[in-house]
Amino acid sequence: MLKGKTILITGGGSGIGEALVKNLSPENQIVICGRNQDKLKKVASANKNVSYYPVDLSVPEEIDHLFKQLSGNKIVLDVLFNNAGVVEQYNISKTGLSSAEIFQRINTNLSGGIAMTRHFISQANKSTENYIVNITSEIALFPVPILALYASSKAGFSVFTKVLRQQLRNTNFKVIEVLPPQIETDMPKQIGNSAKGVNADDFAKKIISTVNSGKVELANGPNVPLLKLLSKFFPDLGLRLIDKMSRKQLQVQ
Ligand SMILES: NC(=O)c1ccc[n+]([C@@H]2O[C@H](COP(=O)([O-])OP(=O)(O)OC[C@H]3O[C@@H](n4cnc5c(N)ncnc54)[C@H](OP(=O)(O)O)[C@@H]3O)[C@@H](O)[C@H]2O)c1
Fold it and tell me: Of 8, 52, 50, 5, which Cα lies nearest the Cα of 27?
C-alpha cells in the first residue's frame, strides 16, 4: 500500500512523474530527480513532503552520487518509480546522432533504470514491503520503427522488469510494470504526435491503484490487444503496418 512510504520518483519534475507526486505526496515522503533543477524545484514547492535531487540518469557517477547523498541525508527508501525517459524519431541512416548521443538515450531509458534499481535494492528499508514500479511503454509490446532507440530501450527495460520480478520472487520486493498508452504530457508533442491522449492525473491514479491492488502489470490502453495479436501471429505484416501508420501520424517524410 502506497501510504506512509518514502518514495523516489525519477522524472518527477514533469508529466506522469509530476502527477504521481501530486497524488502521492499528501500521504508519503517523496524524493524526485531529473536534470532540470527549476522543474524539480517548482514541483517540490507546489506539493508538500517533497525533496529533490538534480541527477542525469544517463551518467553512472551521478546515480552513484545520488544514493550517497540519500544515505548521507538519512533517507531510506521503500519505493522506486523508474519513470524518467526520453523519446525522439531516429532513422539510423538519416538522423545525425553521434555515438555518445545514442548511448545517452539508451542509458536514460534502460541502463539508468537498472543502475537505480541496483542501488535501491541494497539501500531500501527491508522491514516493510518494497515496490519497484517500472514505466515502460506499449511500444515494448510491438516496436514502432521510426522510434528505433526508444522502442529498443523500452523493450529492453520491459524484459529487465520481468527478469527482475523472477529474481526477487520470495523477497519483500514487488515488481510492477506500467505500459502507458499515449498520455497527455510533453513527450508525445516532442515527436510530433498531437493525437488526444489520456490525462496524466487520471493515469497516475490508475498506476497507484494498480500497485495498491497487488497487480503486477498495468497495460490497459486500447491498442494493447492489437499489438499483442500482431506480435504473436503477424510480426512481419505488423512491422510494415505499424511503420506506415506511425509515419503518417508523426508526419515523417
Ligand atoms: N506520455 C506518453 O504518451 C508516454 C507513453 C508511454 C510511455 N511513457 C513513459 O512515461 C515516462 C514519463 O514520461 P512523460 O510522458 O511524463 O514525459 P515527460 O514529461 O517528458 O517526462 C520525462 C521525465 O524524464 C526526465 N528525464 C529525461 N531524461 C533524463 C535524464 N537523462 N536523467 C534524469 N531524468 C531525465 C525529464 O526530466 P529532465 O528533463 O529534467 O531531466 C522528465 O521529467 C517515460 O518513461 C515515458 O517513456 C510516456
Answer: 5
What pLDDT, on a 0 to 100 scale, did the predictor assign at position 163?
98
Residue 25 lies in a domain: yes
The yes-or-no verdict on residue 194 having pLDDT over 90 is no
User: Distance between CA atoms of 138 and 154, rounded to whole angstroms?
Assistant: 9
Residue span of the structural domain in which 133 resides: 6-221
Ligand 1 center–CA 158 separation, angstroms: 16
**Cα dihedral angle (129, 20, 7, 37), rounded to 10 degrees?**
160
Give the pLDDT of residue 253: 72
Q: Report the number of distinct structural domains present in the chain.
A: 1
Residues with CB under 6 A from ligand 1: 10-11, 13-17, 34-36, 39, 55-58, 83-86, 108, 135, 137, 180, 182-183, 185-188, 197
Q: Which CATH number belongs to the domain containing residue 99 in this structure?
A: 3.40.50.720
**Ligand 1 mean position to 86 CA, how many Å?**
6
> Best mutation site among 8, 9, 14 for ligand 1, i.e. most ligand atoms within 8 A of its Cβ?
14
Within 13 Å and on the Cβ side, how many CA atoms surround 246? 22
Question: How would you class 133 by CB atoms within 10 Å of its CB: exposed for 0-12, middle for 13-18, buried for 19 or more?
Answer: buried
| Best residue among 187, 220, 246 to mutate for probing ligand 1, ranked by most atoms within 8 Å of CB | 187
- Separation of 94 CA from ligand 1 center, angstroms? 24
